[in-house]
Amino acid sequence: MRTLIAKLALTAAALGCGLQFAAAETANIWVRADGSNFMPKIVDAFNKANKDQVKLDIIPNAEIIPKYGAAAAGGTAPDALSLDLIYTPSFAAAGQLEDITDWAKSLPYFASLSPAHVKTGTYKDHIYGLPFSADASVLIWNKKLFKQAGLDPEKGPTNWAEIEADAEKVNALGGNIKGFYFSGNCGGCNIFTFTPLIWASGGDILSEDGSKATLDSPQLRGAIDLYRSMVKKDLVPAGAQTDTGANFFAAFAAGNIGISPSGAFAIGALNTQYPNVDYGVTFLPGKDGNWSSFAGGDNFVVTKGTKKLAVVKEFLDFAYSLEGQTILAKYGSLPVRGDIAKEALKDLDPRYQIAAEAMAKGKTPYSVVFNDLINSANGPWTQMINEVFFGDDVDGAIANAQETMQSIIDQAPQK
Amino acid sequence: MTTITATTAPPRARKLVGAGRRQWIGLLYVAPAVALVMVFFVIPLGMTAWMSLHNWPLMGEHSFIGLGNYWAILRDTRFWNALRFTGYYTVVVTIAIFAVAFPLAIFIERPRPFTNLYRTMFFMPAVVGFASASLLWSWLLNVDSGLFSPAAYDLGLIDKKFNLLATFQPAFWSIIAMVVWKVAGFTMIILMTGLQSIPQDLQEAAVIDGAGPFARFRAITLPLMRRTLALALILSVAGSILAFDQFYIILRGGPRNQTLTAVYWIFNQSFVSFKLGYGAALSMVLLVILVTLSLVQLWLLRKPEGLD
């Protein structure tokens, strides 16, 4: 009898162990290469603190969409992925994502999550994506060059006239030094850094719901004239005209550029890789003041029908904790929870606070065909910015882009 | 009588059995090749044709739409523009390649001092992959960090750096220069083998008859090079119609989409807009165009009667 009890107890213990073992699950998560700094750190921290585990794959930016599509078709898609937020509407429209509305709304801090991310994560009043990482657009200036040019190194430009005047003064230093830089053949860079100039002046390039292209606004025309004028005055390096984004950050980092619109990511990159560049950070201004920002970064989405939903939720809960947000902030993303952003950033470079403030008011255009319209190197937006900044026929280029964008929107799959 | 039929019939039967067996053995020998062609050509081609009849997005359901994609191609002005540019590029680059490769082939055909060195030098770029060559040239052509523009500026030849890739003509001719540099060596080798196969005694006889170099070239070299020329021409035309790497890597279809080629547009529709069915239909159209063009070239350059 005793042996029987002992045997039973042993069996129960073994069973218990077995159950415990089976309960620890592993979820697969993908992230685009832009997240290769912070994502491994946060996954490590999560795996150390939890029984359930996350296995992370980092995929090159340009490959993550086709790769995910192929994997989904073959039934081998990851359980979740951190995805450039602009793709969320088209992924949701394709019926590929899990509806996480109830869970999202049950989060006590739901109202403090980055509003632009939540907006792009929402499709037909259901939530399919939640904010994961964030990047705001800001204006950066080189303090050393400002000083040499006789400008106040602590004061960045606050309107368009000041941008041009300051750039001109820096440019006058001559040699390899140029006043201003932008990537003139990169649609993604310019939606990130050029449209805030338009938004801050009260204009827009797409209607709120993404159903109309609105390129024929005086605000867009005004912002174009600012860039054209700087190109004409030779304040911009010749390479800008064909830069598809490869030089977006590097030009300023080399220390020869006075002013450049950029992203909050530049703060971390400059601090760690180019400690000799002394720079200031301010908002991207409108024509007569005011300011705006693009809200970039990633949304976290869940593959429809995944069996690891519990682990995925656990992981996202961890990412949203103060510990998670602090890790994100430390390794290159802005916090996505507005209510604890200040705390998560408190030990970091104070210039992040400006970016975080910009993020809170950040804006992301909403479209199920964002890639076709904006990011594609051959899309209407990229073609237009190159023509209007460097070409001769500004009105023709705008009209052409307006027509092409509208026809792409009209042909988009309606579900 | 019966003995005769009896003796003649069996050998005939044996012969048939032998031929049948030989056929089977023959099939067995080519089976691996047939399998490879099936797996890597026929089946993918069939799948592409099947996909082209569907609305096939990257994600989500696909649905049969018959010839819908093909009707859409008829209205796709950007595809026709891309095709027109591809045709223009093919003509220009083929002429340029032959203009460089033919003299080079004549130059290196006969042994002379350093012939092997020249052959190696001219052929070298052909062994570099198109993508690597494009990356190399995109650096050489870069206005700020490359070779041409900064060197010209530093030498004082120009007073302002000139961005070669910013406007159509310089960008287009930069690509032509790169492709000729890359491909002419390969064409040169093909043409050289053609030149070497022309019997010397024909040339010598013509010299005795008093024919000058130009007359010999026109009356002997060119006609006897017909098949070699046809091969080089078809390779060049087919390669140019499928051009993609250099336009994607160096120009991104720019400036302002003026250098979008047909394959670039197919890539764009398939992997940027994720319309896989439409991309498949475009591929089928391009395939038909390419096959037709190759047949026309073969027919034009077919061996004339009575000439070996």
Poorly predicted parts of chain B: 1-9
Estimated structural class of chain B: mainly alpha
Q: Largest beta sheet of chain B: what is the strand line-up?
A: 1-2
Number of strands of chain A: 12
Supply the number of helical segments of chain A: 20
Report mean pLDDT of chain B, rounded to a whole number: 88
Q: State the shape of chain B.
A: globular
Helix content of chain A: 40-55%
- Element-by-element helix/strand order of chain B: HEEHHHHHHHHHHHH
Largest sheet of chain B: 2 strands, antiparallel
Q: What does this entry look like structurally?
A:
The complex is a heterodimer of chains A (415) and B (308). Chain A has 415 residues and is α/β, with parallel strands linked by helices. Chain A is built from 20 helices and twelve strands. Chain A has helices at residues 2-23, 38-49, 64-73, 88-93, 101-106, 115-120, 143-148, 160-171, 187-193, 195-199, 218-232, 250-253, 265-273, 309-320, 322-330, 341-345, 351-360, 370-375, 380-390, 394-411, and strands at residues 26-32, 53-59, 80-84, 122-123, 126-127, 129-142, 178-180, 257-263, 279-282, 284-286, 289-292, 295-302. In chain A, strands 1, 2, 3, 6, 7, 8, 9 and 12 form an eight-stranded mixed beta sheet that branches. In chain A, strands 4-5 form a two-stranded antiparallel ribbon. Chain A has a two-stranded antiparallel sheet with strand order 10-11. The longest helix of chain A is centred in the N-terminal third of the chain and has 22 residues, at 2-23. Chain A is globular, with a radius of gyration of 24 Å. Mean pLDDT of chain A is 90; it is low at 15-20. Chain B is 73% helix and 1% strand. Chain B has helices at 2-51, 68-74, 77-109, 115-123, 130-140, 148-154, 168-196, 200-208, 213-224, 226-241, 245-251, 262-271, 276-300; strands at 54-55, 63-64. In chain B, strands 1-2 form a two-stranded antiparallel ribbon. In chain B, a hairpin with a 7-residue loop joins strand 1 and strand 2 (63-64). In chain B, helix 2 packs across helix 13, helix 3 (77-109) packs antiparallel against helix 10 (226-241) and helix 5 (130-140) packs parallel to helix 11. The two termini of chain B are 51 Å apart. Chains A and B meet through helix 3 and helix 19 of A and helix 12 of B.
